[in-house]
Amino acid sequence: MNVLNPMTNMLEWMPELLKTEFFHEFPFHYYVKDKRSILIACNNALAKTVGFEKSSDLIGMNSFDLCASPSHAIAIDKNDKLLFARKNKQIFIEKIMPYSRSETQTYLSYKIPLFSKNKVRGLVGISFAIDDLTNSHHLLPVIESQSTNLTARQLDCLLYLIKGHTIKQIANILMLSPKTVEHYLEACKEKLNCLTKSELIAAGLKLSVIRKKL
Fold this sequence. Notes:
By secondary structure, the chain is an alpha+beta fold. It is built from twelve helices and five strands. It has helices spanning 14-18, 21-25, 44-49, 63-66, 70-86, 130-133, 140-147, 152-162, 167-174, 178-191, 197-204, 208-211, and strands spanning 29-34, 39-42, 90-96, 105-116, 119-129.
């Protein structure tokens, strides 16, 4: 059983993983949903965020059970359906206001479809609180000064990348060629000192000019 391959049937090994102590100590939300967007597994971090003691309390719940704002729940379910339709990993910016809190939290969610017999059966997701990603205040002045070197087009491409769009989709939105979009994003990586796409997204989320548009 290869747990490193996200496209295998994760439902077979996820219950075993959930028993491990380090899994529940992860500071981010880790969860598995079925095709109806019903939670079938998650870690304790998610449970505590929405006001529960342990992950088992959330099993069988949907987005409306976890979000005090129906609009947030509708948006999350819409993203799940988009993932199922595209049958490929997606990145989303999602907002949650749990019943246990009065403020809205914003998350960067990375979701991957789960397959069984070549059919999408659900998803596995990891969600990071954007506030946590941008909480290194000593780094923000450096990042902000670097953002002044980004052109308007580079910022546009970076914004749509953070919103979860593919290179082709960004090209269609901005009426550019895919190669031009790739060129702009590579320039963003160089100017923000990033090597990977995930590093670029994290760096982009530290830019106030980007956060204001999310």
